[in-house]
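Pair request: fold both.
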Amino acid sequence: MIRRIATLFASAALLGACHDSPNVPNFNAVSAEALQGALTPSSAQLLVTGLLNQYRNTAIGNHIVFPETMARDAVRIDKAETRYLTELIGPTQPDNGAFTGSGDFTGYFIGIRTANTLIDAAKAATDASGLDAAARSALVGLGQTVKALNYWNVMEMRDSIGMPIDLDHDINAPPAPWVCKQNVLAYVSALLDSGATALAAGGSAFPVTLPSGYTTVAGTPAGFAKFNRAIKAKVELYRGLSREGGTGAAGFNAAVAALGQSFMQTSDLSPSGLALGVYENYSTAAGETQNSLVDAALHLNQAVGDSIQPGDLRAVKIVKAAAPYSISTAGATVVTQYDYEFSLGSTSLTHPLPIMKNEELLLLRAQAAIELNDLATATQFLNFVRVNSGGLAPYATFTSQAAARNALLYEKRYSLLMEGPQRLLDLRAYSRLNATNFRPGTSNSPFPGDVFTSALPIPVNEVNARGGAPALTCS
């Protein structure tokens, strides 16, 4: 993780034909030192473009396929690469030296370093740079928010294994301490608060242009602050649910407060109103990023299609194939006849992926209410989604947390299908990733020796760099 931006993909219009000129700086490898006190509107644009593009390239693919497989929603049937099954839902744990156990990790740390470069440069700049105090504050807030999002995504997949957080040091410094989950989440929460404060002082407009998927909700500092609060709500909810030093009711109340400051809304529950959010956009243009979920080997678990309630409009996401797909490996046969709608066809190569959308925020609000035992509010918010997204009859007011949680897990499964690790996080939080809930030897869990992997291990390169597995550091 070098102290520079790694692989900034600026557009041809930004870089032009001068990329190889010896007289023009290479902004694809801008060092933090070179930018101290020298940030300009053009270099700020390159930094932000690189930061958001790095995140787009990281938070897709395995960050969806791995956890959705572990949560028994997806199966990738590839006879040339069976570890998607054998190590994620099968009889062995993911190998920390293989693409499974070491995957979905390094890209986020590149993003964190890129965010640090932007933040440090914006803080060091002066009015003479062409960026006034408000513009610099907006850039700091954007950087801190995306930095926190990268940390959060690592925690989604590593959970109680923890991660390093003290990363803003020289390349020759010793490896950062390995920090336990509760301390990481506390740090992420505080970082989001710092980002929100900086965005509040960021003026009416960013001094840079953001990707189109951000602009509807987060195209201004004030809008980005609402996106920041949406992330904060999610972090606080799972801090409350955590089995490792969880914050309980304090976390759930913090999530409710953050949702009130986010872009969550109930005035428009049409499909467009539920879809309101911040998105990653994809393109088939030369040099651009395509939606990597378009994958002929990627399918939905048989239980996903079999378990959806009759009449649920979200069944449009589930396509039944003409014939079953199957593979035999590690003493089991995996069979499914269902595909995910957006894994098929060339038009899906440009299908946008939500980072956060209103439909998820409504479900998070219901979840916080359930955990606070406010079952009337929980019913109301679950029905906002169930009726308007699912087209189903509303729930009667719940009389128990257990019944409300069951309903929540159903609604989140189909509203957020193949959009991220949400299902895995909930199965972990409610202790449902086990043989009681997923009977081994069934379509849910086809391997009789299922070990129910709930998190990925520390990558072998990290272990080697530290001379052995790191000890968790907790305050």
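--- second member of the pair ---
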Amino acid sequence: MQMTQPPPKTVPLPLTQKISILMPAYNEAAVITPSVNETISTLDEFGWDYEVVVIDDGSMDDTLDQLDILAKRHGRMLVVRNRENFGKGRALKKGFRSTQGDLVAFLDCDMDLHPDQVKTLYEIMQREKADVVIGSKFHPESRVDYPWHRRIISTTYFFFVKMLFGLPIRDTQTGLKLFKREVLSRVFPRMLVKRYAYDLELLALAHHWGYRIVQAPITLETKRYQNRIRPIDILHTFWDTLAVWYRMHVLRWYDRKTVEQ
């Protein structure tokens, strides 16, 4: 795989902080080895105290075999496995339980978003005193290359989410996000969505509980987007989004004292 963005001059995290990178993977045998190697190489260039946690979400190809080889090679890498494919939300939730970082970043393993961009999110988190920073395709400084039909879907979903939740962001779906640990420690135990609208549920809860969320510019170079969207996925995403709204604003479920494990 050709990586198009070499790491720039580094800006280390404060010495008291460690960052955990969560990378969910499902049937990613074609890309997982170069993706993990590139991520670790980039973080080494930064000079950060880090760990990379890759969650194999029940892959049926040899993704897990490659991950086991990589984990033996890289001392700062950990592999977590789901025996079945439960969805990206549940994979991230499970992977988080194995992390130790003060900051936690979500990063897709397909390299549509280069790991170098985690540095931008961190700089914005520090400057804006944010609790959550998300990569946004709609940021005015973003450079994106993805199909027109995805743009239409993303724009439609933005207005839908804005109407229901009033989030101060335009893009909930991009796979690059950075959190202070306390945010995920509070939000993950309450989350129910495992597959489709998990991004929305996570960010809606963070906003509902008063955490500061800001957006960051990204460079998105799509390699496999065209093959990933199905009409049924769109329907499930909108349905799960309505379910989150119902639990939050009608049932007030998220504010109850008992916690869903």
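Observation on the second member. The mean pLDDT is 90.
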